[in-house]
From TrEMBL:
Annotated catalysed reactions: hydrogencarbonate + H(+) = CO2 + H2O
SUPFAM superfamilies given in the database record: beta-carbonic anhydrase, cab (SSF53056)
Keyword Repeat: no
EC number: 4.2.1.1
SMART domains, sorted: Pro_CA (SM00947)
InterPro entries the UniProt entry points to: Carbonic_anhydrase (IPR001765), Carbonic_anhydrase_sf (IPR036874)
Taxonomic placement: Bacteria, Bacillati, Actinomycetota, Actinomycetes, Jiangellales
Protein name per Swiss-Prot or TrEMBL: carbonic anhydrase
Length: 176
């Protein structure tokens, strides 16, 4: 089966009605007009897409304080590095946090398990994708932090830290 499917069902007009309705209420009370596009607190956060993580609340931040990048496993990918270059040179970022978390599926599953689960749920063969699973979470966090520190397109000396967020307690500890 081709990775590009033309058989996907067309979008129904009601598939997003709940979030569009919520957006209408949000827009009525919208208070962020005029907010500058820079990170007011000079912070960039790379974290997981896990719904149990609320980056702004977790760090005592407000909208506009930080640049937030999320992906599966809080991995430092080429795209994250590209985004950090823009953030540090153009958007006021002066320090970077990589925040992994406890009970992360990316740190507890094998590639075969992920491929099999996706194939069972959808019939799509995803063996060609690199899901960047995490064997040793703390070692991977340290490697990802080092990847940022050594990337030549960031300003020299930008502080970079690796942290682990506990999804059961809300506590954050520095690991790298």
């Amino acid at each position: 089966m081709s990775p590009f499917h033309s058989e996907r069902s067309p979008m129904r007009s009601d598939e997003f009605s709940d979030v569009l309705s919520a957006n209408g209420h949000y827009a009525e009370r919208f208070a962020l007009a005029g907010l500058e596009p820079v990170a007011a607190r000079g912070l960039a956060v790379v974290t997981c897409m896990d719904s149990r993580i609320e980056p702004l609340a977790m760090l005592g931040l407000n909208p506009g304080d930080a640049k937030i990048m999320r992906n599966a496993g809080a991995r430092v990918t080429t795209d994250v590095l590209r985004t950090l270059a823009l953030a540090t040179h153009l958007l006021g970022v002066t320090r970077i946090m990589v925040v992994a978390h406890t009970k992360c599926k990316m740190a507890s599953a094998t590639a075969d398990e992920v491929v099999e689960a996706i194939e069972q749920s959808s019939g799509i063969d995803v063996r060609s994708l690199d899901f960047q699973l995490i064997g040793d979470q703390k070692a991977t966090l340290a490697e990802d932090v080092q990847k940022i520190r050594s990337w030549p397109f960031l300003p020299p000396g930008v502080p970079v830290g690796g942290f682990l967020y506990d999804v059961d307690t809300g506590r954050l500890t520095q690991e790298a």
